[in-house]
Amino acid sequence: MRFTEMDKKQTKVQVVVRVRPPLDPVDTICANALSHSVEIFNHRNIKETIKYDFAAVYNSESTQQMIYNDAVKPLLLQSIQGQNISIFAYGPTGAGKTHTMLGSPSDPGIITRVINGLFQSIEADSRLQSTQEWNYSVSFSYLEIYNEKVHDLLEPKNSDLPIREDGDKNIFVPGLTDKTINNFDEFKALFVPASNNRTTAATKLNDRSSRSHSILLLKVKKTGLRPPHREFHGKIYLIDLAGSEDNRRTGNKGIRLKESGAINKSLFVLGEVVDAINNGLPRIPYRNSKLTRLLQDSIGGSCHSVMITNIAPEQKYYYDTYCTLNFASKSKKIVNNTCTKETSRLQGLKRSVSESHKEISTVSQPKKARSCFPADTRDQSLPNGEAHIPQEPPKMMDPAPYLSPLLRRQNFLEETVNRRFEELEHNILEQMRHMVQKPDVSSPLENDTLADIKKTLESSKQQLQLLAQQQQQVCSKKEDHSNNRTPFTDKTNVHKESQRKSVEKDMIPTTPLFFNLPKVFKRGFKSTAAKSKTNDDDLTKTPKSKSRKIQSPFNPELQKKHNEEILVKMNTASVKELQTLQTVGLKRANLISEWREVYGPFSNFDDLKKIPGFTEKYLQNLLRSNLVCVL
Ligand SMILES: Nc1ncnc2c1ncn2[C@@H]1O[C@H](COP(=O)(O)OP(=O)(O)OP(=O)(O)O)[C@@H](O)[C@H]1O
After folding, report:
1. Are 452 and 496 in the same domain?
2. Distance (Å, whole) CA 366 – CA 359
3. pLDDT digits (tens, 9 = 90+) for 404-448
4. Using CA atoms, how far apart are residues 217 and 235, in angstroms rounded to an integer?
5. Hey, which bits of 13-122 come out as E strands?
6. Share of residues in the chain with pLDDT > 90 (%)
7. Is residue 388 part of a domain?
8. Is 104 in the pocket of ligand 1 (CB under 6 A)?
9. H or E segment at 136?
10. Do 370 and 486 sit in the same domain of this protein?
11. Are residues 425 and 280 both part of a single domain?
12. Which atom of ligand 1 lies nearest, measured to the CA of 208?
């Protein structure tokens, strides 16, 4: 279904903080909640405090209702008007995320309140729309991401579901159950058993720790009963993230440790996504984890997003609190491009976009209706005793990195090329592996392998040339486009244009595309692809000549020693030194170094698997190709 997008606005991710009550009567308190800021002491100088400012800070006395009324409820009407909303709880394990999102029967959390509030808002909306009659429908899906797999909580037999993106860049999960609901009771009947399907377990820090990220997706459709049968499609994501875990304190072992690895890995990628957006990078690594792929719309996408940052006040959580507040501070800079998604049956009859825009401003006035919403009527529709919190007008934010359609296409092409490179690199390394496993170098089998590699290279070269040509066309079109652009007269537009130009300038690669070739290509692939690259850097020589002492890759003792050497290097080498390893480029070297900084040294080789993208297969390749280099 194609949507017309209107009311486009830039809206910052709203970040609020909730400090839960202290649960440990013995431990001292390290976080102090003020009305719009949180203070913690500075671990570098305990005489100082670090202060973080946020849209709102809720202290241990704040109630569930207060947080819902303040941070969530004002957004519900937007979903009925065809906008997307995302509410997500973030924070370390045991800090109160599930309490905030789910709550308990006696003290329900945001999920229960949103469902009730949504049906009440629909009632209020239908009463207000006098010029047009509307039909409303609500449906929901509920999934968890457990150990990097998407599971349907409404239909547990649907496990390990794929994630896809449609032509309009909407992310969806094919095969995910979607249940229509007409009231809160219908929701409850489906949701309660589904919640029991969520994976939880006891850890040292939380008796009932969520071992997965859960996403409840509500779809709201509002359809005009008379021609042109306009339809507004809104979505509400309610997300309870699993908490980041320091396994020295959780005491996790075995399966809990594996879960923890998956949780920390996806949260690490989330941090990378936020950094990439904040740094205006042309490529955001959403694809590096299932979580970020599914949150694509919430972070840097089209949602009105609210991040509820949960922190625990006790001293033993100090480091988690510090990291969480730093992450929350970064996240509040993110700007989403919100819009109203509308379609109508007449669109199928080729109604032009300009006609529909005209119609929008004359026939229906969802915005007007919202702005003149009589406070009395609204209050009548609210649950007993709930105070009406006026909806704040969306603030205009700093200009977000603007991507023209041409730049988007260019990014897409770049992504395609890089993905292809990765595939090719992988194929070639696989073939190298086969070669290494065949000690008889002159065997016909090896010749076959070489012929295969040559063939792969030939075809990849052709494909890359084609992609490079396409990219060049896009770039030159973009140049024409910017040369022909009519000058802006309006002041704000001039400002926006200059902002956009500067962002685009940063984004357009100044080096030819082929400079991005992975190292296998840069080195030039020879039959002894294993030959070490020539590098002036002295740092590169020592470890390689050292490893040259390894005589045979088949001796388990030497293999073990080699693995240990690589592990030492992973724990101690600088980013520059790490890049001297085959298959480790700048990106991976940075990842290793950052991971080490955050989570400490890798205790064994398997620890490396926690780093995003460091799959078993990749690590095997890393070991083998570095062994190959020294033979
Ligand atoms: N605001 C609060 N008021 C009272 N109790 C709270 C509050 N927040 C959290 N708690 C209690 O703290 C404990 C841990 O909370 P919760 O399970 O929600 O943490 P979590 O962040 O979801 O942890 P995990 O990531 O491990 O799932 C629970 O017993 C919960 O009832």
Report:
1. yes
2. 12
3. 444 555 555 555 555 555 555 555 555 655 555 544 444 444 455
4. 7
5. 14-19, 31-33, 37-42, 45-53, 56-58, 84-90, 103-104, 107-108
6. 23
7. no
8. no
9. strand 134-146
10. no
11. no
12. 17
- Is 93 close to ligand 1, i.e. is its CB under 6 Å away? yes
Q: DSSP labels for 576-596?
A: HHHTTSTT--HHHHHHHHHHH
Ligand 1 centroid from CA 334, angstroms: 27
Band of pLDDT at residue 626, cut at 50, 70 and 90: confident
For ligand 1, say whether the CB of 494 is within 6 Å of any of its atoms: no
**Span from the CA of 348 to the centroid of ligand 1 (angstroms):** 49
pLDDT tens for each residue of 533-586: 333 333 333 333 333 333 444 466 777 777 888 888 888 888 888 888 888 888
Is the pLDDT confidence value at 161 over 60? yes
Is the bond preceding 92 in cis, omega lying within 30 degrees of 0?
no
479 and 505 fall within a common domain: yes
Q: In CATH, what number is assigned to the domain containing residue 598?
A: 1.10.150.280
Nearest CA to ligand 1 atom 23: 94
Distance 491 CA to ligand 1 centre (A): 49
Task: Read off the CATH number of the domain in which 217 is found.
Answer: 3.40.850.10
Ligand 1 contacts CB of residue 170 (under 6 A):
no
Specify the number of domains making up the chain: 3
Residues 285 and 434 in one domain: no
Domain match, 196 and 231 both: yes
Span from the CA of 311 to the centroid of ligand 1 (angstroms): 10
Atom of ligand 1 nearest to the CA of 102: 18
Query: What is the predicted ipTM?
Result: 0.98
Among 60, 68, 98, 214, the mutation site with the greatest number of ligand 1 atoms within 8 A of its Cβ is 98
Tell me, what amino acid is at 432? M
Q: What type of residue is 387?
A: A
**Of the residues 475, 510, 527, which one is the last residue of a structural domain?**
527
Does ligand 1 lie within 6 Å of residue 312's CB atom?
Answer: no
Residues β-bridged to residue 218: 140, 236
In a shared domain, residues 211 and 115:
yes
| Boundaries of domain holding 95 | 4-375
Does a structural domain hold residue 262? yes
The answer to whether the CB of 363 is under 6 A from ligand 1 is: no
Q: How far is CA 434 from the centre of its chain?
A: 36
Q: Is residue 279 part of a domain?
A: yes
Domain stops at, among 495, 527, 559: 527
User: Atom 10 of ligand 1 has which residue's CA nearest to it?
Assistant: 96
Same domain, 582 and 486: no
Rounded Cα distance between 59 and 31, Å, is: 10
Q: Please work out whether the CB of residue 62 comes within 6 Å of at least one atom of ligand 1.
A: no
Query: Would you say residue 389 lies in a domain?
Result: no
- Ligand 1 site-directed mutation target among 68, 90, 111, 206, most atoms within 8 Å of CB: 206
Question: What is the value of pTM for the model shown?
Answer: 0.58
